[in-house]
Amino acid sequence: MNEKMTYKRLAWLSLLSLFLLGFAIGFAVDRIAFPEKDRHPKSNGRDDQYLVEKFTKDLVLTKGQRDSLVVYLGKLRKQHSELRKTVDPEFQRIREDFRKSFSLILSKEQKAKFAEMNRKHDQKQK
Fold it and tell me: CB under 8 Å to 115, separation ≥6 — which residues?
């Protein structure tokens, strides 16, 4: 019986070792394939300079194409901004409806924590 436990333990240790090795290899490959300089900065996708540099590098844009890209991105940002003015209030209403409905099922302590979570989320969005 002791021998069965040893084999069982060895099997579990082998599985754990393989899992950890797979994680380490995946992490290393991710860092090599996608170095920090190629990762998108934390700008919620609103960093035109990053996009211009990335497109220029990846697509080997000419100066004229790069200049046109800057103009197109400017138009895109303006259109997004105009759309947000009409859509954001509706998203806010939907979000508030969810928060009110969900709060109904929470305990007093959970409601307080949920309110704090929402406050932090809202602060990040500004």
Answer: none
Q: Is residue 61 part of a domain?
A: no
Q: How far apart are CA 102 and CA 20, in angstroms?
A: 38
114 burial (CB, 10 Å; 0-12 / 13-18 / 19+) is: middle
Q: For the chain, how many structural domains are there in total?
A: 1
* Residue 24 within a domain: yes
pTM of the model: 0.47
Number of alpha carbons in the 13 Å side-chain half-sphere of residue 120: 6
- What domain range is 29 assigned to? 1-39
Rounded-to-integer distance, Cα 28 and Cα 84, Å: 39
What is the number of residues in the chain? Answer: 126
pLDDT tens, residue by residue, 65-122: 999 999 999 999 899 889 988 888 998 899 999 999 999 999 999 999 999 999 998 8
Element (H, E) at 118: helix 108-125
Which letter does DSSP use for residue 103 in this model? H
pLDDT in tens, 21-38: 888 888 777 777 666 555
